[in-house]
Amino acid sequence: MISWIKKLWQVIRSPSVHYSLGALTLGGFVAGIIFWGGFNTALEVTNTEEFCIGCHEMRENVYEELKSTIHYTNRSGVRATCPDCHVPHNWSDKVARKIAASKEVYGKIFGTISTPEKFEEKRFELASHEWARFKANDSLECRNCHSDDSMDFTRQSKRAAEQHEKYLVTGEKTCIDCHKGIAHKLPDMSLANGKAH
Hints:
Order of helices and strands: HHHHHHHHHHHH
Structural class: mainly alpha
């Protein structure tokens, strides 16, 4: 074992053509830290409401709709921002979502939803993608704030309490099954063509 450690130390101390393996390793480590820091900084900058509403398509359409909902202004002062609902909180899912969102950059460059009319034409398609994502992850972003374990059904309307007990607690349905249009205007649902969304 000691001879193996001595051999390893000799390799690390031995020079490459210009630099020792130790210097190259240390340089790679420092470069990795710089890259990781830059990557995470960029990830966090793109995970703010200011970034989301930086383009007029979002600021003038869905952000204006959000401002009239309870998720924006309410008695408790807790406010949901764009990333709270549209970006997963855990790191690996967040990165995957950011990669998928790169398609939105394409849409921005080519003006896919650059006018209110174009946005309305695409609203159902865009909403359907979000509904499918929420359905697939059991409305995880909703559950980050709204825990069914913490819900006091006695303080809900009779209908809401019955529905939550029947579907939410049993896992038959997830939040988005019933709460479409909770923060944004619903699209023209006749476009569903009989599809269940």
